[in-house]
Structures are given as structure tokens and as C-alpha cells.
Amino acid sequence: MIYKDRNNSTSERVEHLLSLMTLEEKIGQLIQPFGWQTYENIDGKIALTESFKKQVENGGIGSLYGVLRADPWTGVTIETGLSPEEGAEAVNEIQRYAIEHSRLGIPILIGEECSHGHMAIGATVFPVPLSLGSTWNVDLYREMCRAVARETRSQGGAATYSPVLDVVRDPRWGRTEECFGEDAYLISELAVASVEGLQGESLDQDDSVVATLKHFVGYGSSEGGRNAGPVHMGKRELLEVDMLPFKKAVEAGAVSIMPAYNEIDGMPCTTNRELLQDILRTEWGFDGMVITDCGAIDMLATGHDTAEDGMDAAVQAISAGIDMEMSGEMFGKYLLEAVRQGKLAPSIVDTAVRRVLNLKFTLGLFDTPYADPKKASEVIGSEEHIALARKIAGEGIVLLKNEGKVLPLSKESGTIAVIGPNADVGYNQLGDYTSPQPTSRVTTVLGGIRSKFAKEPDRVLYAPGCRIKDDSKEGFDYALSCAKQADTIVMVVGGSSARDFGEGSIDLKTGASKVTDHSWSDMDCGEGIDRMSLTLSGVQLELVQEIHKLGKPVIVVYINGRPIAEPWIEDNAHAILEAWYPGQEGGHAIADILFGDVNPSGKLTISIPKHVGQLPVYYNGKRSRGKRYLEDDSQPRYPFGYGLSYTEFSYSNLKVQPEVIPADGVATVTVDVTNTGALEGAEVVQMYISDTVSNISRPAKELKGFRKVTLAPGESRTVEFTVGAEQLQYIGLDYKPVVEPGEFRVLVGKHVNDTLNAILIVQED
Q: Where do the Fibronectin type III-like domain residues begin and end (predicted)?
């Protein structure tokens, strides 16, 4: 048959298969049930459920979500979950049944969560995206995405619901940790790298997966930082800022995209034709698949209230450009009847099915539908990937303060007390969207420091002191007794996105966390966990203050998923490391930084305010937004791009050549960077552009280039940037990109508030 012959073109195969399908089979391709509900693990043997078998035989299933996902939502634990090899075998069993027991033998698209590692038992857990962004190392991130793709595809997963390309505007939002930061240009560079890394050279290879761009669009600008809240944003900002990373990723070849839960100016993204049709498909030329977020269609009738009922919601969604529904409830329930009642044209269904089938053929699922369990056991959690996780965690750690150069610590500096609720709780340093991990797979900060003193274990003391959220101080006395015996104290505090909570704290439709007061829940960040404050939860600050009274060097290590604003700690700690959620190798990476085996090179991709009342505090706001409050100025405690090193870097000889260019011209920007310290180190050289006068108000500064360079002591290097239309343009009066003639300032330096300046003139054509 034509569609089964790989020698035919993809379009020929798609059209032939489509012509053979019944309406029921077509609609089946547009739904995506929960994958973990398709089988049972009985003593290591996989048994497919009768409901899954029936669904396959009655029209089929287009895709499955999270077959191998493990967390409290799925109920899959370390004990009940599948090993890498078993996971591949389970996916093969599912795929085999679908192919052999459906009328046309259409394979299933297996979609998995892989934001910072495949969310399956045994997979490598890399740092969260906020940490990945802090590396400013695009090549290293691309390498990580290749590793994630290899691990996921080796088990049969063919699509991942990442990268998250949302631009963060209010860090109280619980999903801040899933994002790269507050700057659209930086996010765009990482977006392109993620598509290149995940999708590889060809999607039909056994080490490539579909990249799904999410959440399209404006999701990081919700009202009050509340998850999925309304977004109040003008079209110009939407096009210029929030859409930029998506546009660049589409241009890089992304083949899947996920609309956001939120509404923009009253229009839910799930049914926004201007977004999904006019811009995405017509202007950008996107020809891939659009899949909803979980439960998003249901929200149209029970949240946004823009649909009368489930059928109306389903018809609105598919008519607006949705091709597949994650969770499959609305499409599965209503589309068939909608066509029969004349509420939905069959051609609209055909268009969506065509895109789904095209993606499956492009992935090679019809020709090579099965995974190799042996390869899965070799690739997943390999030593190579673990080493990569340690390296990328080290580059993502940001040194915020180093008073008196207390860091790096000497291995001869006496006894060290490691204190705090995040010092030895592995799951707390992994972030949201992470499967449970055996203790042996995660190196905590305590474990990392102890590894530096393997021959002298008595030199490292430990006390948790308190929990993340609990108000109990019963652990203070023991923590103080340990600190009194130590010469140096490392306080490991912060937050937790560990989904380790009790019954009733999960949204069963979306899997998002719910706020709970259960005493065993330390979760204060992650999806569904938005905050009113950016301070430390519980009694952590009081613990640090009590320890500080001992008069000994106090080094604070933050492990968390959003910025922390604690003025007392910033004023009184001798050193502060921001580690975000550094993944399974985070403890080693932090210890490497503490003892100088790795020189810190991370830089902030999100501004850290002095106080939550300053929000929004992102660096590239408009010039007109004012300079101060009654109580304080509007500047953050730590600005965008900030991060210290154990060495020093100087900048000199900034040049723009030529200094005058036409609107379509190009200038070269060069600057000399010198390591003036005594240690080798890496510096992130950042270039910003400022349009001094424009027809429409502009941000004071915008990041338009960066380079990460490693320099030996005394070494200098000339770093070069190119400035042209892409760096100078903005969305003009007619909502089209324009480069206006006039004066531009080019700023290059260590961070947004520490730069050299030069002038570039753009002439009239």
C-alpha cells in the first residue's frame, strides 16, 4: 500500500492514508490520553489495560502523554516504575498493540516531559532552565538537549513538551524556574539551540525528538504572577518581546507548538486565530502540529467562559487551529457528534489529521516504530550524561557576594558545618517536572562537600536546622551546636519544588500542584505554587540569623526556583551563591565552586529585587516607568547579567566600525577583555543597544549579543559583535519591523549596569 511504502513521498503517504480513514479513525488521531493509564506493571511484567485495547480497536489513539512519567500525579514511584530497559519494552508493547490491532496499523506518537531531562525513572536530571539560562553557554545547552533527546528516544519517546520559552515578568510565578529568564533575545538564542539539540539532523533518527515550543504566548506575564492568569499586553510588545523566541525557534525548524492557558486582552490563546493562523502559519510559515496544554480546551467552558459547553469549546479550538488535544477528553467526546450535527466541517478535521500524520511519517514511526531496550539501558543515565549534568550545573551557579574573598574555601581551613533544610534533601534540588530519584543518584550539597574530605569525614558536620515551610525551631539547638564546633558555616537554604505531598494537592486534570497546608509539604515553588512574597519560607531566615550571631564566616547557598529577596542575608552573609535547582549533580557542582575547583561564571538572567514591592523589576522596561518609590529607588539588588568570579576582568578599547551606517548596513563592535586576576576564569561579555530617540518609546537598554570567553591570568582577547538591522529594529507604527535613522548607543560590559559606551549613527537611506 502507498502509505506503507517508505519510497513514496511523505505527502503521498499522508494523503493515501487519509483517504482510507473513517471519521472515527481521524478523530482518534487528534486525541492524546494519559499514557501511564494504558498499562499496569505487575511484578515487572507489562499488562495493557482493557480500556486502552478497546480504544485502539474502536478507532485508535493518535498520541499518548507521559507513558513513562513518574511523580505523585501518575502514582508511579521508584518502586513501581520501570527501569530504562523495561520502559522501552513497555512502549514497544503499547506500540505493537496499536499497530497490530488497529485497522490501518497507525503507530502512536509518544509524548514525554523533558524540560531538564526525561521525566522517567533513571533518566539524567539536569539543572532547571533558570539555571541553564544562567550559564549563558548556548553550545553547552545544545549538547544537553542532544543528551535528553538520546535518552528519550531510546525508550520510544518521540516528542517532548519543551522548551519553555516564556519571558518572565513576575518571579512570584511558580513556573519561573521552568523559564530561561526575563530577556527575549537570550531566550531566543537558547530556543534555537534547543530545537537544534532536540531535533538533531533529522527527526527519523534514533537520537532525535520533536521539540514543542511552549507556552504560546504571554504566559510569563500573567496578572499578579498567578499561574494562567489574564495577560494585559499590547500587540507591539507581544510581537517584539514574547513572540520573538517562538519566531526564532520556528525559523530553526521546530515542528510542534503548544498554546498557553492564558488569555490576552480577553482572547484565550487556545482559540486565538490571529495567533494560531494569521501569525504562526501565514506570516511565519509554520507547518507543524499545534497541541493544547493539558485541560486547556475544558478551560474555555469552565474558566474563560468563552464557550457554552464542551462541544462548543472543542469546535472553537479545532477551528482556530488546534490539531491535537493533550488529555483528549473534549475532542474525544464531542468532535464526532459535532461533525454529524453540522457544527464542524469534515475538512477542518482532515486538516488537523493531515498535520498529525505528517509528523508521524517525518519521525519515521511507520517504518521504525520500536525502540531498542538494550540501547536504552546503555544511554539513559550514562556516565557521560552525568558528567555533563555536573558541568552545566557548575556554569549555572551565580556568585552574588564574596566579602573579603572568603571564597574559595581552602581544604585546609578547619571544620565546616553544613546547615539548612536544603543541605541534604536531594529531591529539593531537582526542581519541578522531575521523577523521583534513588538517594544514590543525587549528590546533595552535604554529599558534595563530604566528597572533598573523603579521608577526613569528621571535618564536615551537618544539621538541617529546620524545614523549608514549617515554623518549628526544634532543630535550632542542634544546628547551633554543630556551628559552634566549626570554623566555617555553609548555610543551604531556599525553596522546594518537590512534588512530595499529600492527597488532594494535585489538580487531577492538569497535574499542577495545589497549595496545601499539610505539614509534610515543603513545596513553595513549581507549577500552581505562586507566592505573594519572595522571602524565605518558614523560619529559615531566623535560623541564618541565629547562626550568624556566632561571629563565624557564613556562606549562604540558595537552592530555589525563583529569586529570593532577603535584605538581611544580603547585608550580613559573607558570601552568597545562587544555585537555583542544580539537578542531580548539583551537590558536586556547588562543592566545586565553594572550594575553587571550578571558578564561578554564571550570570543572572533575571533581576533580583530588593523587595517584592519593586515588581516588576526586569531590566528592559521603558524609560518612562519612573526612578523610585518613597522608601527606595527602583533598582534591583542584583541586576540582569550580574555575577562575580574568583578573578577580575577589565574592559577597554570599545570600538564601533564604521561609526555611521545606512539602515540596511552592518557595523562591527569590538572590545578588549582582560583577565587581570590570578586565576583562569570565564567571562560573559554582554552587548546592549539603546535607541536614543524613536517614534515609539523604547526600553533604555536591550541585550543584543553575548559571548562567553575563558581567559588565563593576564590574557586579553578582542571580542567581536555584529550590529545590523536585526539588532537595531523594533516594531514600528505599522506593526512591522523598522530601523529608524538616528543615534544609537552601543554598550558592552560585565552586566547591564556596568558597561562601556560608544555611538553608532544610522543614516537615512
A: 683-752
Distance (Å, whole) CA 489 – CA 41:
46
Write out 672-737 in H/E/C secondary structure: EEEECCCCCEEEEEEEEEEECCCCCCCECCEEEEEEEEEECCCCEEEEEEEECHHHHCEECCCCCE
Instruction: Verify whether residue 522 is a known catalytic residue.
Output: no
Residues 6+ apart with CB under 8 A from 762: 660, 661, 662, 663, 665, 728, 739, 740, 741, 742, 743, 744
Residue 159's DSSP bridge partners are: 111, 210
Q: Residue 551: name the closest of 488, 475, 492 by CA.
A: 488
Read off the pLDDT of each residue in 504-517 and give the average, rounded to a whole number: 67
Cα separations (Å) of 182 from 179, 194, 702, 731? 8, 18, 11, 19
Q: Among 493, 411, 481, 490, which residue's Cα sits nearest to residue 453? A: 411
Q: Is the pLDDT of residue 620 over 60?
A: yes
| Residue recorded with cell 538616528 | 742
Task: Name the grid cell of 709.
Answer: 570567553
Residue 514: its pLDDT value, please?
Answer: 72
The DSSP call for residue 128 is P
Q: Is the entire prediction scored with pTM above 0.85?
A: yes
HEC string of 592-641?
HHHCCCCCCCCCCCCCECCCHHHCCCCCCCEHHHCCECCCCECCCCECCC
pLDDT at residue 512 in the model: 77
- With contact defined as beta carbons under 8 Å apart, do 533 and 544 qualify? no
- To the nearest 10 degrees (0 to 180), the angle between helices 346-362 and 329-340 is 140
What is the rounded average pLDDT of the residues 313-320? 98
pLDDT at 135 over 70: yes
pLDDT of residue 43: 81
Cell 531498542 -> residue: 372
User: Angle, nearest 10°, between helix axes 184-199 and 138-154?
Assistant: 40
Residue pLDDT, tens place only, 466-505:
999 999 999 999 999 999 999 999 999 999 999 865 545 6
Record the cell numbers describing residue 63, joined without a space.
498520541
> What tens digit of pLDDT does each residue of 438-449 get?
999 999 999 999
SS (H, E, C) 166-193: CCCCCCCCHHHHHCCCCCHHHHHHHHHH
* Residue whose cell numbers read 557548575: 394
pLDDT mean over 337-345: 98
Q: Do residues 591 and 449 lie in contact, with contact meaning Cβ atoms separated by under 8 Å?
A: yes
Query: Is the per-residue pLDDT at 327 higher than 90?
Result: no
Contacts of 370 (CB under 8 A, 6+ apart): 92, 95, 96, 156
Active-site residue (options: 293, 323, 522, 691): 293
Per the CB < 8 A criterion, the answer to whether 292 and 317 are in contact is: yes
How large is the average pLDDT for residues 135-156? 98
* Distance linking the first and last C-alpha atoms of the chain: 59
